[in-house]
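Dear U.,

For the methods section draft, I wanted the exact inputs and outputs in one place so we can describe them consistently. I've listed the two proteins in the order they'll appear in the manuscript figures. Please don't edit the token lines directly; just add comments below if something needs changing.

First protein:
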Amino acid sequence: MKLSLQYPVTNVTINQRFGENATPIYKQLGMSGHNGIDFYALDGTPVFASHNGTIVFAGLDGSNGNLVVIKTDTQFDYLDGQAYYKTLYGHLKTGTICVHAGQQVKVGDKIAEADNTGASQGSHLHFGIKPVQQGEADWQWFNLEQDKGYNGAIDPMSFLPGLVEYHIPLKKGDTGFEVEKLQAYLLRKGYMSPVDKLGFYGDVTCAAVLKFQLDKCVLSWYERYILKGSVVGQKTLTALNLNNK
């Protein structure tokens, strides 16, 4: 049986995904890129358990700041076999952790509030997942993906529900966060080459949008040869959300 997670925050917006490398700190920590998902979460935003399990850590943990770790109590599918998993919730607000090691929690239980503790550049929730295996002693657990460049972590998105993240139509000339979010998707999926600065819907973004539309949408003659990626309408928004893993 595959592990199924729920989102650890209620209003889901992703600032940074797994594998992205927006800051040199990941290289300094010996990783190939970001080893989790950063969810947009203002100071004091409630953080919830994403699955049933046992609290195995709740306290201060270096670059993660205040951290809570929850381990599954049963094994789930992992490659060709099974493994336990642990989820990590980092940069939590001091004094708000309301769980303790050894405590059983259910999916949706509040565990803390978001903040900016540890190596963080703004209030958010860092969320990660690692497949683990028990050692010879009850308290010994080992990361099964430790040598893959992300300190044992794997991409949480494959365990989370599909995310309806793209709502707002865009057009050439637009600027702002929604454009950045679109560009981050296009970069992540290989439709767009890196640019010096995100946030402006120009010719490079038009070309990338058209590549995505040709791949994932059924385009009219007008959309293909006249608009040529200059508009992100409902058809494209639907395709973005359907392919948002």
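Second protein (the one for the lower panel):
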Amino acid sequence: MPKLWSETIEAHRHEVREATLDTTAALVAEHGLRSVTMSQIATETGIGRATLYKYFSDVDAILASWHERQISNHLEQLAGVRDQAGDASERLEVVLETYAFMNHEHHGSELAAALHRGEHVARAQQHLSEFIQELLIEGAASGDLRDDVAPAELASYCINALAAASNLPSKAAVRRLVAVILAGLERRP
């Protein structure tokens, strides 16, 4: 059991919340989505059930919070790789490839299927779309990417096409998918 006490109450609450999210994800991975109970989570986290209920109303609320944290981490990762790349085209390529690999690595799980239905997913998709649109606008302004289709439509094309990465058999196939998507974004003479 982890030691869940910190210097401040706020830090303690944060640690309890994070430990609860991590423990729940591990229990779901081990036992399956519908086999995990609040009692199990409390025991494995090292807190009382009453304390757990102060943080979360049920297992679904914990899983939604865990998923929101994952989405936030993924968006931060995309921003990080974008900021390390060179010109607009390179930034777009690295973002699309990173997102494709995220889809490829997290495909097919019971947890992923259950969690990709929430309102927080729609907000994340909108944020991702705006993120990609900015790169598309920058690439069109530099003359590298097409400007004959609205950036929102192209971003939707990218996101929907990259969803196919979850069903691809290899990383090489994911890279080929990204190359095809990028070819569709190139400026036409």
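Candidate sentences for the figure legend, describing the second protein: Residues 59-84 form the longest helix (26 residues). The domain at 9-56 is CATH 1.10.10.60 (Arc Repressor Mutant, subunit A).

Thanks,
Y.
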